[in-house]
Amino acid sequence: MATETPNELSLAESARLVAAGELSSTELVAACLDRIAAREEDVQAWASLDPEHAMAQARACDAARAGGPLHGVPVGIKDVLDTADLPTEMGSPIYKGNRTLSDSSAVAMLRAAGAVILGKTVTCEFAGVAPGPTRNPLDLARTPGGSSSGSGAAVADRMVPMALGTQTGGSVLRPASFCGVVGFKPTYNTINRAGLKFAAENLDTIGFIARSVEDVALSLRVLTQRADPPGSAGPARPRIGLCRTYLWEKAEPETRAALDHAAAAAAAAGAEIVEFELPASFAGLTEARETINNVERARSLAWEWANHRAAISVRMARSIELGQAISGETYHATLQFADTCRLALDGLMEGFDALIAPAVNGEAPVGLAYAGDPSFQGLWTLLHVPAITVPALRGSNGMPVGVQLVARRYADEALLRTAGWLVEVAGLDGRKAMADAASPGRVPA
Amino acid sequence: MATETPNELSLAESARLVAAGELSSTELVAACLDRIAAREEDVQAWASLDPEHAMAQARACDAARAGGPLHGVPVGIKDVLDTADLPTEMGSPIYKGNRTLSDSSAVAMLRAAGAVILGKTVTCEFAGVAPGPTRNPLDLARTPGGSSSGSGAAVADRMVPMALGTQTGGSVLRPASFCGVVGFKPTYNTINRAGLKFAAENLDTIGFIARSVEDVALSLRVLTQRADPPGSAGPARPRIGLCRTYLWEKAEPETRAALDHAAAAAAAAGAEIVEFELPASFAGLTEARETINNVERARSLAWEWANHRAAISVRMARSIELGQAISGETYHATLQFADTCRLALDGLMEGFDALIAPAVNGEAPVGLAYAGDPSFQGLWTLLHVPAITVPALRGSNGMPVGVQLVARRYADEALLRTAGWLVEVAGLDGRKAMADAASPGRVPA
């Protein structure tokens, strides 16, 4: 069965069809390239793309029948991960045309699994806050979120079924939520970061943007050598903590409605929903994440600062200067504070399959200069827990709003099973409109 | 005061003299280059060296009077850390002539502190176990240890006062002990690793090889933005745990004598010495470290494996194949086991200024093909604690044997103060011969 629009297929379905000989890699890659050709002028998701080289990879896959779990399937790579055959420019003029001898670990492992590296996706400058040209494919006047802007936009626009992102604050989950797709950040330090340009190494986590939980699970298995089956079954009656977090005042009505709708859907499908409050001390996590981020940016960009200061954005320069002014003592105390919170959370989450929490403040803001607030994602990034966003509903402007599920460190597969349950059993699919949500968002405190 | 042999000066003394205008950077760097010219044919510590470029850096320092804490002082860089002006070859033919656009974070921060980057020091292949050509300067028939072989040999041979190393198993402390100098590995993830080729990212730690504790403290302050004074004062009556570890059977008589001698010297100077036994479960740390090392090597070298397998050493290939065969489940369980041990150790070390433990099995072995056993260093590497080795005595072959001091995570400065106390107050200087040691090593169990 050849599908009419192979670029709309999921990663898992593409892999199944190619493996079965029902779809060729060349057809699939050509369909993605056609979609890009039709839409890239508007969306601007790609930092570098070499269609002929992508097609050559696809032909090689078709010529070699046996293959890995992603044989012949195209993927996108955020432009902070080294690729031997494409430039790695990191959204910075300093690295214009930069070539590396080797692939990053994640890229090499995707290739070893048979994937076609379709191209590099646009990143904010050094995976930070200064955006590239990418637009939200659902509304070109709005940001796609960042810093994995191109990965979010390309996957949402059916240009590629899955793209790698990285999250230091909220750079995987926020663009996924803003673009109406699925974004997943695994437990810290479980996907190898060799060949990643660090933003802040105590935070940076490689993750996936895709269009289904199943696709995220498949990607995770490839990059973590796990043998688990997709595990869409999930718990029969999950126990879920409803965690509004200490940032709840930032939640716009859309986010409040999304959380209520997701909790109501889960409860209706049999989940036990329990209010879950973070300890008061956790309110320091947002500032702690900023401290770590600023110190580590100052250090990881020390060469760029010394040699190319004029080519660094004003916002990044501000972060670097803040980081330079923070003492080693404060930095180390902050790292220890984060460790303490991680341990405490491990204990608090005992007995819960997941927490459900806001993913973003609300819908994607209008304008391209601001890629959105990382607060609701960043606190979980610092806690090193696995986190996923799935679309929950459409806000008052018709834009998607996701909810976030998190689990204990290393419980990545269990989290994906719970997320799969929420989508498949509880029916959360992001198509409901806000006005139609199960219950309205609460009034701000 | 111009010294006759500036290359023999410590890092701190060099920096003081240059800052005071009593020694020029060009005199200092020229003396180091002269020493290298005289000895390099025998020692082979350097992977790349550009004497004219080093002198140009020195002249620039002399021309610019004001400077950072390392103004005009030469340092060596292990050849797994990126340098914009010298190749980064990683001890592998795959990376012959490899150039990077930028400096690694540690190198850029050293430069920002005024240091002259003298050259790149020889590393075992990818900071692993396949040695380069470096010889032990104290006995050319013996290994200098590895994988920071060139850093250990160059510092011991007075070619440079300090060199960066990296430790994944025992790659900083072992060469330091084998070459009779000081080696320090800080708390994991406190020196920025941007621009380091990862061996195993959950273990890799950038450290220093120098000829005094003061020099290590100075280097640490530069790379961690700490403002502390050198802190040679140390505790008046330190409480030290004597930790033979579960590996004690591996300790040769020289190591037993070194530990006893150091403990006796500390006790004689007023320290409280308490036998300290690790919990039985910690005996799994050695295998756990190997599991993590193998899995992460397989991943970080995935590109090299796919594209240049024939250029990978047999020993590295074996590690990669072992790593590929380990499931993600086992890997994650191993990471969690290590986390558990770290937490337990934090509690057990409460009330101790440091533990004293074996640094190495014994003297540097004869021959260059085997860089020594990482077990005594590796267990502490996996525990992420700061660790330092200082020379304790001379073994039966006249070669140096160090002891190791470790402290709680983030207690790096306190550890250095205790180590300084052991050297300066307790008088441990490594000059005592084994036969003359305070008490003989115990008979193996």
Automatic annotation (TrEMBL), chains A, B:
InterPro entries registered for this protein in UniProt: Amidase, Amidase_dom, AS_sf
Domain (Amidase) ranges: 27-416
GO MF terms, alphabetically ordered: catalytic activity
Pfam families per UniProt: Amidase
Assigned protein family: Belongs to the amidase family.
Official protein name in the record: Amidase
